[in-house]
Amino acid sequence: MTENTEWNNAIEYPKFLKSARENVELMKARYNDLQITEQDLENLRSLQNELRILVIGNDRCIDTAGNLPILAKMTDISSKLKLRVLDSDAYAKYHQQFKVNGKRKTPVVLILSSEDKELCRWVERPNAAYKLINEATNPSLEGRRTELKKLYSDTEIQRQSVKEFMNLILRSDYILGRR
């Protein structure tokens, strides 16, 4: 569960994008290139409860740059979704509570109720991306960054992210009493 202070300290996506120094073109391209299906539109427009999406990440992170624009596009479609970004470096102490296998991962996506109760959580990258990265032969950090940038240009990986986010958003709507 988060507190109002984290939500209130987080910034909206346009402000995040405007202040970003890295991966700006990648984020703009992901937002513009994302294909939203009719089923996606129907699901997003059918939401009955207000949901807050708090993303803990930063502009240096390729996984954040690859997934944050997808959430931004989804929130632009549904008036029931609100999106904010909390800098993972500036709020490292808060970010610590979301470690995976003892490590801080970005982004952390928290789906919250309007009262800031955590309903669902998603961390780092879609399942399909984990599989490809774990099978990659280039162990260098720069090589992995390059591979991730290419990966997030793949429409199948984008669809995987949309599907995973959509499932969590719909689950959260049902948790809150979707009729």
Report on the structure:
The model has no long low-confidence stretch (mean pLDDT 91). Helix content is 51%, strand content 14%. It has a four-stranded mixed sheet with strand order 2-1-3-4. The chain is α+β, with helices and mostly antiparallel strands and 179 residues long. It has a single domain (4-175), classed as Glutaredoxin (3-Layer(aba) Sandwich), CATH 3.40.30. Helix 5 (62-77) links the parallel strand 1 (51-57) and strand 2 (81-87). The protein has helices at 4-9, 13-19, 24-33, 38-45, 62-77, 92-95, 127-135, 141-151, 155-175; strands spanning 51-57, 81-87, 108-112, 118-123.
In short:
It contains nine helices and four strands.
CATH superfamily: Glutaredoxin
CATH topology assignment:
Glutaredoxin
How many E-type strands?
Answer: 4
CA(first)-CA(last) distance: 24 Å
Strand portion: 5-15%
How many structural domains are formed by the residues?
1
Any descriptors?
179 residues, alpha+beta, Glutaredoxin, 4 strands
Set out the fold topology.
Blueprint: H1 4-9, H2 13-19, H3 24-33, H4 38-45, E1 51-57, H5 62-77, E2 81-87, H6 92-95, E3 108-112, E4 118-123, H7 127-135, H8 141-151, H9 155-175
Parallel strand pairs: 1-2
Antiparallel strand pairs: 1-3, 3-4
